[in-house]
Amino acid sequence: MNICKERAFDLLKQISFQRIAGTAEELKCAEMLKAECEKVGVPAVIEAFEIDMPEIHEAKLEVTKPEHCEIRCVGIGKSGVTPDEGLCGPLLYIEDGMEANLVDAKGKILLLSGAAKPEVLERMRKSGALGYIACHGSLYDPEEMIPEIRTRSERRKPGEDANFPGVVIHITDAQKLLRMNPEEIRIIVKQDVDKKGTSHNVVATIEGTEKPEEIIAFSAHYDSVIYGTGAWDNGTGSITIMELMHHFVKNPPKRTLKFVWCGSEEIGLCGSKAYCEAHKDEMEKHLFNINVDMTGVLLGYEKAVCSCDEIVAKYVDFLGRVEGFPIVTDVDMYPSDSSSFARAGVPAMTFARLAPKGGAEIHSRKDIFEVLDPNAFINTVAFMVKFSDAVVNAKVFPVPRQLPKELVEKIEQMKKMMGEDKKTEKKDDEKTEEKK
Question: What domains lie within the chain, and their CATH numbers?
């Protein structure tokens, strides 16, 4: 194997800085990854794509009755815009937003226990509520982390223009707000909902020696969230597929390999969706996607989630037993870039090394280099090399193209939730009209 933990962790140190979607720092990291590929003779390109980057101009949450009190918050992108004077109403705590929680929601401002899932957001809008407050963080965060509320944006259905303004507060402030039992609160949200930005994918290619027309795609997102360095999530995934690239440079593959570092995963898998759309004419040639989202954490356990036929999960489990490499396997959709490939009809999977409860954390300043370990990292990479070698160089490609029925149903549900089924129907109608 031509893998090296020292080389990998040297690159990880270089890219462990905030790489937020659509920023100059994200592009800087993309250029560093491209340069690393070209250093070993693998041609790479940077592919730009458009993303939503709503700009929040003002966000305010305050108790207006019985006594005035302002609570720190950030606005939720694409949620909506309030009148200049804001929206005033009674506070209603709706926990996780079940239907029974929303019986008396009309004319009120709703407080959730966490983030608003799409189906909950839909119920809140239909309830007649004025707006909403989402929560972020932990009751046990140190004091210096409480002001660091992570910004987020809604994922709207195509053509949806519902105006339902929302803000995010820290969960400790949510607890204080409930204990106040206010008579009335006000939220103000001012934003440019439709502002766009540019993000980038890095795509490197190693041509196959025997079956160049067949493609295996390795992917990992390289963007991070605000406040953290993104060392674990997903600097480690980025260096994992870089080491796999180094291995296949020295051991030329039978099939063509694409190494895709995806931008803007953290705001909705945007990079992998953009890649699948930009390369839709060759998606039939993509036989399999192997995604990596977080490896190398010292205290952790290995997991493989397969968005494909269960034969892959069984093989991973089998290989793990043969190699003495403990790994949990599952057949499901995973909240990472493998899902975009599966939605595009490409069998996919994600490898990850996850932390136990109370261990390393992501999506905050707690995502740091110090929780990682080169030996834990290289053990995962070594196992992935053995798995990838077998798949990439198989005499007969072993992964069935057809996805299991339960995964197809989940994908259809996801598309319906985001209104993508109607978008597809519209495109089909347009094609039919063109033929006429």
Answer: 5-53+197-403 (3.40.630.10), 55-192 (3.50.30.30)
